[in-house]
From TrEMBL:
Name of the protein: Uncharacterized protein
GO BP annotations, alphabetical order: actin filament bundle assembly; cell migration; establishment or maintenance of cell polarity; polysaccharide catabolic process
Segments of this protein annotated with the region Disordered: 38-60
GO cellular component, one term: actin cytoskeleton
Signal peptide positions (record): 1-36
Keyword set includes Heme: no
Lineage: Eukaryota, Viridiplantae, Streptophyta, Embryophyta, Tracheophyta
Organism expressing this protein natively: Setaria viridis (Green bristlegrass)
Entries under Gene3D superfamilies matching the protein: 2.80.10.50, Glycosidases (3.20.20.80)
Hydrolase found in the keyword field: yes
Length: 549
């Protein structure tokens, strides 16, 4: 990379400065031979005592000890550089047709025939309209082109489009092009009553034989007698992640929205507050596109790297450690919005090129921040989901990612996340592997939320579950000579209705006591949130959590 970007950013400049210093000291040792008249360098005795160097060729400066002591007490800066709609809903407010974002699942029922548009067999062949019940084959995921124009993806992964014969609709394309593009025209007085205009300019209708064809050219009065009118139903949970935000606005309009968000949502005062509250580190989720700043691929917006630079500057000022967390990997390592999945599909790790691209992102981040004393850890990936993320691809990636960090930093911890969603929940599967790396950390996340089992738990049952089950699981992962352990996400929130402040205080304390066993530490999810109990600043300011007592 060299020092080409010297005018860009302070850290790059600092890196260049270090290189210049190193070069200068090389020159100093060479110059006395080249130019005898030169004043000799000052004696080295002014330097503080350094440990004996293992080899004279070593030019790496002695590592600056990272700020926090183990175990850390950290907070996640969620919803900042990787957006999630529920953390800050207003970010999405300015999107036109904001209920039709990428990944939104829709079903279309003919107003006239009362049958659903179906990708027969889930896709790969005919599109029909002869079923009266809707399930997977009748459900389509939107890919948004703009506020009115979309592709429809079948449950099998193909795209709906106009086939070779005139206007007949099929689901055979593996990638969308013009024939797979449809306009959704909404009725002015009922937005879920729609017509679907195909690329040939005609509206789609289901005909009596069950076939679906784009050949309807008449205007409409939106009545049930119009064969081109469909009742649109949205099903499942809508994704509201970085992809949906950027593509929902379109990159040009998303840019000012996100730049404003990056510079106002988390500011220096937050770092000051975090440090003064007794926390010692921040875990910062980032997306893979930050490595191509300032020109990330569409639809992502450039400029988030400046925000991360600021975070390091403030962390240094307030003596906080930074755990950089690759929260969204290319292709998405889980189907959720926080991995920036476009439509809920999970493609990370399915090719060698994809893994290599992810390693490049880690290399970029480690190289950029290696000289900051606040670079405490690099988390190679958040929440990979089994079985789609295989143990084999994950450990190959963790090995290469670890080496990419070590290439730049001898001291930063390297965090490896356990896979989620293994039916037999083998939380120790990474131990033999991770135990082989100096400075490796295993990340586990504990919530009494995302499982039906917790739906009717009482206050005491939640507390007991933390003290017994999570505590036991953490103890099983925390081994004598194995990797360090990190409860990288937890929250004092549950399914208990109408719990009192005292209940929340007890729950938070029980968790901090249990997760205090983690040898690397813990991190609360999140620092700021539209929901009070998920907002650690709110919890501290309102006396629900006290880290100084
Ligand atoms: C719909 O049409 C397809 C193809 O002709 C046929 O295989 C299927 O059984 C039909 N389904 C219903 C519910 O009529
Ligand atoms: C959306 O895209 C379609 C197809 O490219 C285009 O015809 C239409 O004008 C666009 N609409 C808007 C609002 O940009
Ligand atoms: C979980 O993984 C560990 C480490 O590979 C292995 O020793 C153990 O047998 C596994 N447990 C189960 C239940 O598969
Ligand atoms: C929780 O309680 C409700 C109401 O009693 C019940 O319908 C539901 O099945 C319970 N859920 C679980 C997971 O036990
Ligand atoms: C939680 O721990 C208790 C006590 O050891 C045990 O009976 C129960 O099965 C555990 N629950 C789960 C879901 O593992
Ligand atoms: C919780 O509080 C709400 C509003 O005060 C009340 O309507 C509801 O019945 C309460 N729920 C329980 C389980 O006590």
């Amino acid at each position: 990379m060299g020092c080409r970007g010297g005018t860009r950013l302070p850290l790059v400049r600092r890196l260049c400065f270090v290189v210049v210093l190193l070069c200068a000291s090389c020159l100093c040792s060479i110059l006395p031979y080249a130019n005898a008249k030169r004043t000799p360098p000052p004696p080295p005795s002014v330097k503080p005592k350094a440990p004996p160097s293992p080899s004279p060729s070593q030019v790496v400066p002695a590592p600056v000890p990272p700020y926090p002591a183990l175990p850390v007490r950290a907070v996640c800066l969620g919803g900042w550089l990787v957006t999630e709609g529920w953390i800050l809903p207003p970010l999405f407010d300015g999107i036109p047709n904001k209920d039709l974002l990428d990944g939104t699942q829709v079903q279309f029922k003919s107003a006239l025939r009362k049958t659903y548009i179906t990708a027969d067999q889930g896709g790969g062949g005919a599109v029909l309209a002869n079923r009266t019940q809707a399930s997977d084959w009748e459900t389509f995921k939107l890919w948004r082109i703009n506020e009115t124009t979309f592709n429809f993806r079948t449950s099998g992964g193909q795209f709906v489009g106009i086939g070779a014969s005139d206007g007949i609709i099929v689901a055979t394309a593996t990638a969308p092009a013009l024939p797979e593009t449809f306009q959704i025209v909404r009725c002015p007085f009922d937005k879920n009553r729609v017509r679907i205009k195909a690329a040939n300019g005609y509206f789609v209708q289901g005909i009596a034989t069950g076939e679906v064809i784009a050949d309807y050219g008449e205007p409409t009065r939106w009545s049930d007698w119009d064969a081109s009118v469909f009742l649109m139903t949205k099903v499942g949970q809508q994704l509201q992640g970085e992809y949906q935000l950027c593509n929902g606005y379109g990159t040009d309009k998303a840019a000012p929205v996100l730049r404003d968000h990056w510079s106002t949502y988390i500011v220096e005062d937050d770092f000051k507050f975090i440090a003064s509250s007794g926390l010692t580190a921040v875990r910062i989720p980032v997306g893979w596109w930050i490595a191509s700043d300032p020109n990330p691929p569409a639809p992502y917006v450039g400029g988030s790297l400046q925000a991360l630079d600021n975070a390091f500057k403030w962390a240094e000022k307030y003596k906080l450690g930074v755990i950089i967390d690759l929260h969204a990997a290319p292709g998405s390592q889980n189907p959720w919005e926080h991995s920036s999945s476009r439509d809920g599909t999970q493609e990370w790790g399915t090719t060698d090129a994809n893994i290599a691209q992810t390693v490049q992102v880690i290399d970029f981040l480690a190289s950029r921040y290696a000289t900051s004393p606040s670079l405490f850890a690099v988390e190679l990936m958040n929440e990979p989901l089994a079985p789609r993320a295989t143990l084999d691809s994950l450990t190959r990636y963790y090995r290469d990612g670890y080496n990419a960090v070590r290439k730049h930093s001898p001291t930063a911890y390297v965090v490896m996340s356990n896979r989620l969603g293994i039916s037999s929940a083998n939380s120790t599967e990474l131990l033999p592997f991770a135990g082989g790396f100096q400075g490796a950390v295993i990340d586990v996340h504990y919530y009494t939320m995302f499982n039906k089992m917790f739906d009717n738990f009482t206050v005491q049952q939640n507390i007991d579950f933390v003290r017994t089950n999570f505590s036991g699981e953490l103890a099983a992962v925390t081994t004598q000579n194995g990797p360090l352990t990190f409860v990288g996400e937890w929250v004092a929130e549950w399914k208990v209705p109408n719990a009192t402040k005292e209940d929340y205080q007890k729950y938070a304390t029980a968790q901090m006591n249990a997760y205090g066993q983690a040898t690397f530490g813990w991190s609360y999810w999140t620092v700021k949130n539209a929901n009070n109990h998920w907002d650690l600043e709110w919890m501290i300011k309102n006396g629900y959590i006290n880290l100084k007592g």
